[in-house]
Amino acid sequence: MSTQKNVLSCLQPTGELHVGNYLGAIKNMVQLQQDYRCSYGVVDYHSMTMPYKADKLRQNTWSLCFQLLACGIEPENLFIQSLIPEHQELCWIFSCVTSYGELQRMTQFKDKSQQVSQQDAKQFISAGLLYYPVLQAADILIYHADYVPVGKDQEQHLELSRNIAARFNHQFGTEYFKHPETLFTETPKVLSTADPTRKMGKSLGEKHYIALIDDEARIIKKIKSAVTDTGDNPAGEMSPGVKNLFILLQNFGDAAAHESLLEDYAQGSLKYSELKQTVADATVSYLRPIQERHREITSDKRRYKDMIKASSAEIRKRAQQTIREVRDITGLQSLKL
What confidence score (pLDDT) does residue 113 get? Predict the structure, then answer.
């Protein structure tokens, strides 16, 4: 039995990863593998809560798997949610110890349902959009996670997971489920290079994000056309656009270049063209090994798909053990013959 603490983190398959995703989550996930027993899920069931195309979901699921492997996620730590149906069984059991009011108060449900309504007042809003935090709790608790790396916007969902664990334990007179803790780490907030008043994201459009697998010419073009000063920042304060470029340089470049250009800025001699060129060169250089690894993986998709299916099957054994124990605790029938 491993004595390592368990870490669980999941990502929805929404297409290309961008540098904001990488610096905000993926880089940390790779590093955590050194010290923890990590389980990383590609949660395709969660992507069904909003309107989608079946072929696109399947494509995005494998695309995210390949990109995560290219970034350094170990195959044995990666699983696809829909290949482990025990998540859904535990979700139903948890739904019976979750209140309707709790789900209504979830911030993301309010935000996403309003987003759908604004697009079309008659647009269908699925019950899954309300319900998916229960599935998220099942994703976390089924592997008895000690820690969940989250951003501040996800803290509410982890709190719901703890509430569900506590209510389950109380109702059935057990201490079976742990109360997972947040694992906050220093992660930079990367802004759109086209509009540095907003967080980098694909929903804003192609020019607002730098994909990890963008070709070098495109990366350089996006950085060189980055907005720097907008003229409305307080005197003596670095503008969001310039600060954003320095964040990229700090994470993708060498410390000497970062310190030198920061000193130029302090002295009022910084040329933005030089800063952008340095950031572009550093970003391209940093991402090159990831892109090379990605090309290697996607040139042999069958092999890597088989690896992910095998790792999902192995990780599923842990989920099956949890379900066997939960069935016993809750009075459900045993799956044993």
Answer: 65
Measured distance CA(53)–CA(32) in Å, rounded: 33
Of residues 112, 178, 222, 276, which has the active-site annotation? 112
* Tokens standing for residue 198: 């907003």
300-309: which pairs have CB atoms within 8 A and are 24 or more residues apart?
301/62, 301/66, 304/65, 304/66, 304/69, 304/75, 305/62, 305/65, 307/75, 308/65, 308/75, 308/78, 308/79, 308/80, 309/80, 309/83
Sheet of 181-182, strands arranged across: 78-80, 37-42, 6-11, 147-148, 181-182
Buried b (16+ CB within 10 A) or exposed e, 291-324: bebbeebbeeeeebeebbeebbeebbebbbebbe
Active site residue 53: no
Q: Is 199 an active-site residue?
A: yes
Q: Which of 56, 202, 224, 243 is catalytic?
A: 202
Q: In the prediction, which pLDDT does 155 show?
A: 73
- Beta-carbon contacts of residue 109 (< 8 Å; ≥ 6 apart): 103, 129, 130, 133
Is the CB of residue 159 less than 8 Å from the CB of residue 183?
A: no
Name the catalytic one among 199, 221, 224, 243.
Answer: 199
- Look at residue 216 and give its three-state secondary structure: helix
Q: Among this protein's residues, is 27 annotated catalytic?
A: no
- pLDDT value of residue 110: 67
Instruction: Return the exposure string of 81-103: e unless at least 16 CB atoms fall within 10 Å of the residue's CB, then b.
Output: bbbbebbebbbebbbebbeeeeb
CB 140 within 8 A of CB 9: no
Taking all residues of the chain, what is their mean pLDDT, rounded to a whole number? 91
pLDDT given at position 334: 84
Residue 276 CB contacts under 8 Å (≥ 6 apart), including other chains: 223, 224, 226, 245
8 A C-beta contact, residue 200 and residue 208: yes
As a whole number of angstroms, the distance between CA 66 and CA 297 comes to 7
pLDDT digits (tens, 9 = 90+) for 102-123: 888 887 666 666 666 556 656 7
Residue with structure tokens 């920061």? 262
To 10 degrees, the CA torsion angle through 100, 107, 22, 88?
10
